[in-house]
Amino acid sequence: MKKLITAALIFAASATMAQSSLQEKRAEYAEIAESGSKAEKDVLAKELLQVARTSKDEGDLIFASNFIYRLGHENSADSIRKEVIRKFPKGVTARDAYIRGFYDLESTAEMEKKFKSWVKKWPMEKAEGDKLNYDYVLASMARTFAQEGNKEKAVMYVEQMNERFWRAQGYIPVATIFLQQGDTTAALPLIRTAIDDAEYYINLPKEQKDNKAGFAAVGYPGYVSQLAAVYDAQGKQVEALQLVEKAIALVPDQAPRFSAIYFKGLEAAGRKLEALQQLELLYKQGVFTHKDKMKELYTVLNGSEKGVENYFARLDEDVIKGIREHIKQMENYKPAPDFELLNLKGEKVSLASLKGKVVVLDFWATWCQPCIRSFPGMKAAQEMYANDGDVQFLFINTWERDKEYKTNVVDFITKNNYPFEVLYDDQKDAETGEVIAAKYGVKGIPAKFIIDEEGNIRYFLTGSSPNVDYIRLEMKELIEAAKQPKG
User: Which residue, 281, 346, 450, 456, shows the most beta carbons closer than 10 Å to its own?
Assistant: First the structure.
C-alpha cells in the first residue's frame, strides 16, 4: 500500500508543482538534496524556510515543505504543512490532510461516509489535473467492498476512477478478489479494461509517451498473464494463446515474462517444441518448478527419456553461465564506507569488526515490495552459508518514513521468521547529514553490496527476483567470486 501511496503523491505533487514559480529550480535543488554537502544543504534549507515564511502561493509552500523534508528537517516540514492548511483551508494540502485517516478506518460504512463528506467539500470535478488522490481512495474502497462480498459497490466505486494510466491499480486488485471468490464474470471486464488501458499507452507515438505512459505499461505482462490463466482454466486455450501472442508482438522485449502461461497454450495447440523452449527460458531464469513437465515434453519429442540427464546438465551449465555473465555487469572495486549501526537488540555492529569476512549488505524497507519479494531467496542464500564463518549477511533497514518504524521492522521480521541480522540505517553523519545508504550511493532499493575480506566493494546490484533458486545461485556466485583475490 505504501508504495502505491508514494507513487500517487509523486504524480499528485508533479501536477501541483507545475504551477509553482520554483519549478525551474527543482533539478538544482534535487541535486543538492541528493549529493550536496551539509553546508550546501543547510543553505538551501534556510532559503526554503524563507520562502515558506514569505510566500502566499500554496504551490511554493508545498514545494518548500517537500524539499525541506528531503533535506532532513522533518519537523520543520511538518510545521509548514500545518501552516499551509491554516492559510489555505480549501487548498490541496487541507484536502489531502482531511482524507489521510481514511486508510485507518475499519468499516466500509465509515469509509463511505468519510469519502462522501470529502468529495462534497472538495468535488472531484473541480480538481482538474489533480485527481489521483481521489482515484487512490476509490480503489481502496472498491477493494474493501469486494473483500466483503459487495460486488455491486466494489464495481461502482472502481469505475469512478479518473486517471486512465492509473486505474488498473484499482481494477486488477478488485478483479483478483473476484477471481478468488470464484466470480470470473465480474472479474474479466476489469482485467480486460486494464489490458486495454495499457495497450492504449503502449501504442502511443513515441513523442507522446511520458512517465504516465511508462507507468501504465509496466503491469501489462501481468494483466495479460492473469487473463490468459483464466482462459486456460476455462478450457479456452485458443483464446489464451491468441492473447499472449498478441502481447508478445506488442512488447517483444517483455516476452520472457509471458513464458509461464505461454507454454500451456503452445502445448495445447500441439506446438510441443515451442512449449519446451518456453520452459527452457523459465529454467534459465531460475524457475525450476516445471522440471517434470520439461522431462515429459522432452520424452515425447525424442521418443524416449534417453539423454534427458545430459539435457538438464547442459541447461544447468547455461544457468550458471548466464549468472556469471550477468554479475560481470555488477563488478565494482572501491573501499566500502565504514559504519556502526544498531541491530534489533540495540547492539552496535560495525563493518570494521567484520574485516576478514565477505559481507553481504542488503538495503531494504518494510514498504518496498521488491525488497520483500527477494527475502525468501536471500533467506535461502544465507542458510546456504550458515556454517561458513567467513560470510556475514547484514540487512540494513533504510528510508523508513513511519515514526514507528522500529516496531514495524521487528514485527515484520518476527512475523515472517526471517533469521536476519537487521541494522537500522537511522544515524545521520554529523558533517554531511547523510545516512549510510547515501554514503554507498544507493538511489533505489533493494540494493545489495558484496564486500570482500579486505573491506572493498566487489559487486553492487539493484532490483530483485522473486525466484528463490535463482537468487540463491546468484548470491553463491557473487560470494564465491568475492572470496577470490582481485585480479
Answer: 450
